[in-house]
Amino acid sequence: MNILCLDLEGVLVPEMWQAIATDRGIEELQKTTRDVPVYDDLMQLRLRALARHNVPFSAMLEVIGSLEPLPGATDFLHWARERFQVAILSDTFYEFAIPLVRKLGYPLLLCHTLQVEDDRIVGYRLRQENPKQAAVEAFQSLGYTVCAAGDSYNDIGMLRAAEHGCFFNAPTQVTSDYPDIEAVRGFGELTATLSRYC
Amino acid sequence: MNILCLDLEGVLVPEMWQAIATDRGIEELQKTTRDVPVYDDLMQLRLRALARHNVPFSAMLEVIGSLEPLPGATDFLHWARERFQVAILSDTFYEFAIPLVRKLGYPLLLCHTLQVEDDRIVGYRLRQENPKQAAVEAFQSLGYTVCAAGDSYNDIGMLRAAEHGCFFNAPTQVTSDYPDIEAVRGFGELTATLSRYC
Question: CB distance from A178 to chain B under 8 Å?
């Protein structure tokens, strides 16, 4: 029995900040970890945009609550949970992710927390440095072999630390920066790749 | 967001070996971690009994497949997964547990593996020394506070390592050996205790 670590946004569910960007018409919020590799830079950009546009936290939750898992994600996750112990490693925040995690049937999610005051996001707390890589190494310290799939720069540490890591539906810009990491597209290919390890 | 580590047998599902013992009329298999504190001793006793009675692995799986989660366990787990990230830490084996884990909605399960040949259990592989305590410490290394509940001697390491550990429906023999560990009975009390940490 191996552990499977999966990124959340772009893999199982839509990009939540982009959904908020589209709903509120805030162009800066379209950027993701694919565009801004340093996560703290990305979050500072997001918080400035939210403050400038005076976006209530509750309005963001309403947008996120209307999202659904990506097509095929629920079936894929069911397949995966029959064959692996699955952990979602994400740089999102529990306060955002819970409605979607509920729709996915409560897989274990390791991510970060927001600081919310008076219906405004005033800050955030990252759980630790290199959180995805640290989580992979923690599972390895428990005697597990780890498989992993993600789509962006913030997944590199996880993909490299895992015994078997691959990009899933990653943009060409990301995959061409890391040509040594296997890149698969679509749940059919991902399932075929993972089948080698279960 | 805290992690909640739960024992499996006696907490969420019935004792699987006892179900097999009853089904096959094999008295030695009634013993659990509550009776034999050293897990390896217990497993050697079980394997000898299985060999002596020539019990096929498939017959054991049939008994396990007929088991259901304990009354209230599914509702409790749903309550817990809304409020914690839940990990099941068990000294059972994946080959045994999967039918029950499926009925519980696939919570993350960290346990051991069996060696099966020609429909007979010929051995087992424990994942590591002190596996429950190591798992709690791994989650703590990722920046989490850990709550834990279990019912037996093999849970002591987990309950002591966790920031908030308690016995759940443990026999008096166990709780009186560890009077410093909080002991709760029934899911109502467990929920009340855990509510302090979520």
Answer: no
